[in-house]
Description:
The chain is an alpha/beta fold.
Amino acid sequence: MKIGVLTSGGDAPGMNAAIRAVTRAALNSGDKVVGIYDGYRGLVYAKFKDFRRTDVSEILNKGGTILGTARLPEFLYESVRKIAILKMELDGIDALVCIGGDGTYRGALDLSNMGVKVVTIPGTIDNDIASSDYTIGFSTALNTACDAIDKLRDTSSSHQRCSIIEVMGRHCGDLALFSGICCGAEYIITNETGLDKENLLESLKKNRLEGRRHAIVVISENITDVHELAKEVEKYSGYECRATILGYVQRGGAPSPEDRLLASRLGKYAVDLLHEGVYGVACGVVGNELKATPLAEALKQQRKSQLELNNLAKKIS
Ligand code: ADP
């Protein structure tokens, strides 16, 4: 087989480890491997490179993606996807491994429906892919968020401040929920919990009256303007309040061991599935078992952060 591998959408630490695992597993089985640069754009423009073992040396521990990533809105058009398929045929690429988030999965499903042999690997820091308990990049982003929140806690405590920290996770609150629990946040707001402003202000006021020196509020992106929220908290609670948006720093850095392991397992699994003739599926780890879910089904479910953890956060704040 000649297997093409690409990374698409938002980058995530551990994508390189997945590229490496796909490449090495395929080459070790006698397949050929083609690196496709800049996601679906590279497929359309035939930005291909035949990969040897050494093309993926020294990348296991590196953040970002050596293949680059891009967004190609035109991939929604069948005519554009037909060009991509033609470029694959001209190069003799038999099958694709697409590493990315839900947008990448949608593109892969469209290709699959047009007859392309494709499997996907979840690569996104948001942990918002329902067909896998964890996505590649989430663990590293969680470490980054926890490191930042711990540091903000130090200064908040010194100044008796409230810190509002916005983390990524537009569709799934896991990054806020996990980092909030791990850093002892007083209050966690995600798109699953929603923002109950009255309750937030009241509990921060109570905190302050109880003499707590600081308060940490962790909130997912895209919920509210956190700088405006900080002004309201300051006015109402008695705490001086600062908002910090962690932003793109969460996407960077060397992948954690957990992400390297997950990426290595899923990369090899993707190649195994192609060998078994299983296509049109999303690779994932569910209950620590490797699992393939049909792409259409994987995209139907929306991942929600765990109820048990939401309750835990409330009980121990
Ligand atoms: P992510 O994969 O991180 O969610 P995006 O949502 O930006 O990132 O998607 C990555 C790329 O996948 C898009 O730029 C586009 O090329 C392709 N894509 C996204 N949605 C679709 C769709 N509905 N149909 C076909 N291709 C899509």
